[in-house]
Records
---
Amino acid sequence: MANDGDIRIDLRGDGRVILYKRDNLKDPVWQVRVRVPNSTGYKRISTKTSDQREAERFALNYYEELYIHVKTGGSIKSKTFKQVFAEWEKHVATMGHTRKGGSWEDTIERIRVYALTFFGPMRMNDIGPVQFADYWEWRKKNYNRTKPTNGTLRRERTSILPVFKYAVSKGYITAVPDTDPPKATLERRPTFTLEEWKKIYTAARKWVTEGQTKATSRQRNLAQLYILILANTGLRVGELRGLRWGDLRTVKTEDDTRLIAEVRGKTGAREVVFQAGAQKYVERLYDRRIEELGENPPTDEVLFCHKDGTPIQSMKTAFNALLKFAGVPIERNGGSRTLYSLRHFYATMRLSNDTSPFLLARQMGTSVEMLEKFYGQTVSSALAARISKGNQTVGDGSGKVYPFG
């Protein structure tokens, strides 16, 4: 609001358009404060002129533009997508987890890489169905490595929507725009055959041995254990990235023991059972960390971390290097194999061994419907009663006691 020392002119006589400038400044430009019916707050802007008549024309025209803007569903408090994203990112940081108990980290990164690049300078009021249609076309041509499928774009839409819902809650826009995402098509998950998997874990031993004298020695050791754990749990990459020592425990079973991990994924918190024998990969990882620290790692430290304890964000480069070393092609049937392919390999192997789809869906944090859609060719009758029935650990015991034992 203007101060007592300002020159103020009420152009309409109703307080909706106020011109003002500081009286003690040499040749100052006029400022305007506008209030529009059926809208909260004020809008302040410089007229960029010291001529009163030009300032009056600017102010009244600006009022008319805002009035029409609000009448058609806009808001005078609009900000750019970049500004709202920054606010929203700080907001979700105070919330801890998503509504379903998952992490915001992947969602934030997904928005930052693509949506922020495209929508960043646009005002939230100006983003509607047309802009989203343009965005989907832009995304199909702009990607880091793999061309996004319609299913990927629909999942990306789910990540973007919270930013617009936040903007509505703050009064920056009046409603979430129609995003009209592309229709998803059924796509089989790119995975590995059993023969390819044998080549990978066999080659990994030689890959690690040959790397012992190289700067990548630590990374290769961790990457080997990383892929073995993914293939024996069905964990999502983001879930394993956030897994901490304190999230692990061991339970007794009829034939032995099983390692249990409490994870928080995009579908909420759940417990994940490691395949029989897979506990040794975690024990090996724990022993390596003790060697680095000279003591037991803290319970709140993630399993896969840098030497300073900060989480390793990606194993993608190491994984691709291992595939190349093993002679296993990244591309298959028009799709690229990624670390997520290990999750799909896990699902295929469990279903091929007659694991109950109901138990497997619970283990993987998904639904039976999704299993039938993407792994229908391997879903057999629900005969098994245990998640670890069938083959033992896929891939590679001491009496040592571990904190998660």
Note: The first helix runs from residue 52 to 71.
---
Amino acid sequence: MQTLPTNGVHLWLILMKAHEAMRRHAERHIHSLGIGFSDFAALEVLLHKGPLPVNEIGRLVRLTSGSMTTAVDRLEKKGMVERQNDPGDRRARVVHLTDAGKKLIECAFADHERAMEEAASGLSAEERTRLASLLKKLGRKAEELY
């Protein structure tokens, strides 16, 4: 059995390639649902986190404020979300899922979850647990350095 190099650069390259393959799979699947990636990401965050200001949605899905505002505008025109005044801060607006938006993202997310499960099916439950633990450990250490 051949031993693979384990230096930091090699690990980074493996991680980058694995991430890229998973990202491509996720994006292809999301697009097959007839939803753009940023729209899906915004709807998914609202489904799982509840109503949020546009800037917070953008922070969570890692999109610029301009891109996020455009996505929310698009979703609002389609009747998937609505902006409401923040009861705690009259200057702020909070984005809420509409019933139609909730129905769409619940179905789309369930389908996406199955697609991502398929992509991860090459790993056993034990391997997934170990990988998740190791990736978190790697990320924490890298984050410490900055």
Note: The radius of gyration is 19 Å.
